Amino acid sequence: MLKKTPATTTSRQAVLDRLTGKQVIGPGLPTIEHDRMVHFDDPVEKFIEVLSTVGGQAHLVDDAQQIAQILSDIPVYANAKRVVSLVPEAIPGSLDVATIDDPHALASVDWTIAKGEFAVAENGAIWVEGATMPHRVLLFIAQYLAIVVSRSDLVHNLHEGYARIGTPKSPFGVFVSGPSKTADIEQSLVLGAHGCRTLQVFLTP
C-alpha cells in the first residue's frame, strides 16, 4: 500500500514570491485631449435626460423641504417602515445605522437616502463615496434608493469624473446610475431584480 505524501505548496509559493518581487514597468497612461471630450450646453438637462433613459428620476429642488414633500407624495415612501438617511439634515431617517454592527440586520430596509459627491451628465451616474456609507450594502439592499447631490457638482463626462475622484478617500466608492435592472431572461427588461426598484435623484443648488 502506497503511503500518501503530504501536499506541499513550497514550489507554488516560490513562484508567487518571485512574481511578487519582480517589478514590472507598464505602459504610461494615454494623454487625454480634453478639448475632444464630450461637453453639453446644459449638463443638468442632459443628466436628467440620460438618467430617465436608464430608469431613474431626477428632481430639481431648492431646499430640503421640497425633498421631503416629493418623497411624501410617493406611496412606497409614505408607507415605509425602515428608512435609513445618510443626509439627516435634509431627510430624517427612522433607523439609526450607528447602532447596527451586522449588515445582515439591514435586510429589511425600505429606503436608503444617500449623499452623492458629484454627478456625470454623460451617463446619468452619481459617484457615492464609501466614506459616507456606514455599511456599503445600504446602496444595494434597500428596496428603494434616493440620492441627494448638488447640481453645482455636475461634470460633463467620466474623464472629468475620475479627475474629481483623484485618490479615493476610502477603499470603497461606486457610480450609481438608475435602479437595478436585468434583461437576461427572454430579453425582457426587469427593474429591481438585484437591487433597488427605483432611484430618485434630488439635484440641490
TrEMBL record:
Gene3D superfamilies registered for this protein in UniProt: NagB/RpiA/CoA transferase-like
Domain of life of the source: Bacteria
Pfam families: LUD_dom
Residue span(s) of domain LUD: 106-203
Protein known as: LUD domain-containing protein
Organism lineage: Bacteria, Pseudomonadati, Planctomycetota, Planctomycetia, Pirellulales
